[in-house]
Structures are given as structure tokens and as C-alpha cells.
């Protein structure tokens, strides 16, 4: 099950990078479409860490980082390839996929710091509480790491580009959204952890019978 959770994590991570070019409004809050996807990656690392341990969660985070770097390299190569004569969408293709270096740097830095912080906080609490209080470590680790993720990304990507008041407004609005999702996803964390543990117990039982 670990490999499937990691695949979902990496897939959602790559999808969030693609969706980030689309902005949408929720009342007075403006968010990138990636916001509906990226927050779920924290749920996945929490579930992986809860069932498979801290090392497994860190491996998943590292796999996601490496995959993002590789994706950006191949996207850049794809953009530079000469378009076919019948391909009339090169400009649109570049607009969607050709993020600026500053945005890419902001994404990688915020991802690397926040995801590792999420794993560290989660497992510090897990060592203290064991299997109890999953709701506490799921929420506290995600809400804290998402704050760092939001502040780092917005600051690196937009410092000096937009007024400070707008910068602070972007940080606050995006964090409110991430905070809300982190609070709502707790039942799903319990559900996925229970499902994964049952799967692993059944798998181990079948291996013992086979041996």
C-alpha cells in the first residue's frame, strides 16, 4: 500500500504544479487552482508516516522533490523543441508550462522546508502519544508546515513584485484556506490509516500462510 500512497502523493504534487497557473475566487479570496490539490499531499505524508514510519514519509517527500525537478527539466526541454508546422498552440503551451525561475525556486524551497517540517512535527508528537491522538498530530503538523509553506512561497515568488499589503493579503487568504482544509481532512486521515493497517495485516497474514 505504501507504493500506492506515494504514487498518489507524487501525482497530486505534479498536478498541483500544472494547475497553479489558474486562479479562482472564493468570495474575496483569490487562490491558485493548485490549492485544492496540494493540501492533500500533507494528508498523504501523515498517513504514510503513521502507518509506515518516519523514514518512509521522508523517502516519499524526497521522491516528490526529485520528481518535481525532473518534471521541470523535461517541461523546459519540451518547450524548447521546435513546434511542428501544424501545431498552432506553441504560445499557449509556453504560457501554461513555462513558469518563471523565481516561481519554480519558490515552489521548490517552500516544498522542501514545509514537507520536512510536517514529517518532523508529526513524528515528534507520535513518539509522545503512540497511536493515540492522530487528530492532534495530523492537524498540528499540517497547519504549522502549511504556514511556513505559504509564507515562503508567497514571499520568494512575489516580494518586490506586488505591494507589501497585497503580499500580506495573499499570505493570509491562502493560509486560511489551507488551515480550513487541514481541519476538515482529519476523518479521512483516520479512514486511510485504518484501511492501510488492515491491508498490511492481511498481507502479512497471507505471507505467513504461504511460508
Automatic annotation (TrEMBL):
<keyword id="KW-1133">Transmembrane helix</keyword>
<keyword id="KW-1003">Cell membrane</keyword>
<dbReference type="Pfam" id="PF02592">
    <property type="entry name" value="Vut_1"/>
</dbReference>
<keyword id="KW-0813">Transport</keyword>
<dbReference type="GO" id="GO:0022857">
    <property type="term" value="F:transmembrane transporter activity"/>
</dbReference>
<dbReference type="InterPro" id="IPR003744">
    <property type="entry name" value="YhhQ"/>
</dbReference>
<feature type="transmembrane region" description="Helical">
    <location>
        <begin position="30"/>
        <end position="49"/>
    </location>
</feature>
<feature type="transmembrane region" description="Helical">
    <location>
        <begin position="61"/>
        <end position="81"/>
    </location>
</feature>
<comment type="similarity">
    <text>Belongs to the vitamin uptake transporter (VUT/ECF) (TC 2.A.88) family. Q precursor transporter subfamily.</text>
</comment>
<dbReference type="GO" id="GO:0005886">
    <property type="term" value="C:plasma membrane"/>
</dbReference>
<keyword id="KW-0472">Membrane</keyword>
<protein>
    <recommendedName>
        <fullName>Probable queuosine precursor transporter</fullName>
    </recommendedName>
</protein>
<feature type="transmembrane region" description="Helical">
    <location>
        <begin position="146"/>
        <end position="169"/>
    </location>
</feature>
<keyword id="KW-0812">Transmembrane</keyword>
<comment type="function">
    <text>Involved in the import of queuosine (Q) precursors, required for Q precursor salvage.</text>
</comment>
Amino acid at each position: 500500500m505504501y507504493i500506492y500512497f506515494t504514487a498518489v502523493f507524487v501525482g497530486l504534487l505534479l498536478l498541483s504544479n500544472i494547475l497553479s497557473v489558474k486562479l479562482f475566487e472564493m468570495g474575496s479570496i483569490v487562490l491558485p487552482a493548485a490549492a485544492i490539490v496540494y493540501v492533500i499531499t500533507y494528508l498523504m505524508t501523515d498517513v504514510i508516516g503513521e502507518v509506515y514510519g518516519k523514514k518512509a514519509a521522508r523517502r516519499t517527500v524526497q521522491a516528490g522533490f526529485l520528481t518535481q525537478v525532473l518534471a521541470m527539466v523535461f517541461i523546459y526541454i519540451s518547450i524548447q523543441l521546435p513546434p511542428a508546422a501544424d501545431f498552432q498552440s506553441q504560445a499557449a503551451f509556453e504560457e501554461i508550462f513555462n513558469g518563471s525561475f523565481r516561481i519554480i525556486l519558490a515552489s521548490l524551497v517552500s516544498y522542501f522546508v514545509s514537507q520536512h517540517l510536517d514529517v518532523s512535527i508529526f513524528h515528534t508528537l507520535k513518539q509522545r502519544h503512540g497511536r493515540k491522538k492522530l487528530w492532534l498530530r495530523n492537524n498540528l503538523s499540517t497547519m504549522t508546515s502549511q504556514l511556513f509553506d505559504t509564507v515562503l512561497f508567497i514571499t520568494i515568488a512575489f516580494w518586490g513584485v506586488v505591494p507589501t499589503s497585497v503580499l500580506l493579503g495573499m499570505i493570509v487568504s491562502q493560509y486560511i484556506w489551507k488551515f480550513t482544509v487541514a481541519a476538515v481532512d482529519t476523518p479521512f486521515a483516520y479512514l486511510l490509516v485504518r484501511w492501510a493497517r488492515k491491508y498490511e495485516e492481511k498481507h502479512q497474514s497471507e505471507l505467513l500462510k504461504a511460508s
